[in-house]
Amino acid sequence: MAKKSTRKAYGEALVELGKINENVVVLDADLSKSTQTAMFQKEFPKRHINVGIAEADLIGTAAGMATCGKIPFASTFAMFAAGRAFEQIRNTVAYPKLNVKIAPTHAGISVGEDGGSHQSVEDIALMRAIPGMVVLSPADAVETRKMVHAAVDYEGPVYLRLGRLDVPVLFDEETYDFQIGVINTAKEGADVTVAATGILVAEAMRAAEILAEEGVSVRVLNVGTIKPLDGEAILKAAQETKFIVTAEEHSVIGGLGSAISEFLSEVHPTKVKKVGIYDKFGQSGKGAELLVKYELTAEKIVSVIKENL
Prior knowledge:
This protein is of the alpha/beta class. It is built from 13 helices and 14 strands. The strands form three sheets. It has a seven-stranded mixed β-sheet, with helices on both faces. Strands 9-11-10-13-14 form a five-stranded mixed β-sheet, sandwiched between helices. It has a two-stranded antiparallel ribbon with strand order 1-8. β13, α11 and β14 form a beta-alpha-beta unit. The longest helix has 15 residues, at 6-20. The protein is globular and about 55 Å long.
């Protein structure tokens, strides 16, 4: 299966947008090679701004450009965007509902050797809590491209979570349809539902294949939009399958698992088991090895399902 990182797909999508929409501008905090916004910089140097290692300025400048009719994409590492610039995102972008797209890369522990200081496992929780913020997390390169285009069409603040690691390309460019706020059913199933996001969608699909050989039918939901959550798809899964397993490269506190649990507790109490990071920081190591160490794998999903059937 072909692999490509979501950060690379993001850089390519920005170049596409730059050619068809002159209002698209890109800002970076001295990490353009890492975030892949260097692609846009090469094609449109006058529409790319490197603010330096100053994440608060990154967001503030993006907000100012949005007030002038531009559509800014602001990129740095997720830890520095959601963490260091949280106050600017909250008060300067979200509070006045400005049309800023915050698209950080290097989210989760698969950043690898940079270690716990650079591995953001709290960013979804932080961004979910901000009123009016749309939170997106693509599963592969195809979905990333679709999300970037959808973000441009959406009027308002968007947080688009991207990764460093090359991941399997799951979807077909010609047929895959992404809409903000709509969950994509990656695989139908009748026994158990796995609601996954980001890099864990591929693992959920692999888990479903493993369990199918044992006679267990697993529905896989690709939750590309974490906020606003597609309650209709979640409720349907809760009603039609025995329980739900959530899977995310993020803390189980405040992430996708929390969002689904919060929703179902009010409308249809359902057992929800979470695969994610349990109240720990990441550490230095190869990205793929860290995913195994923190049990963000198909094997872990299989184990959780078997324990609860």
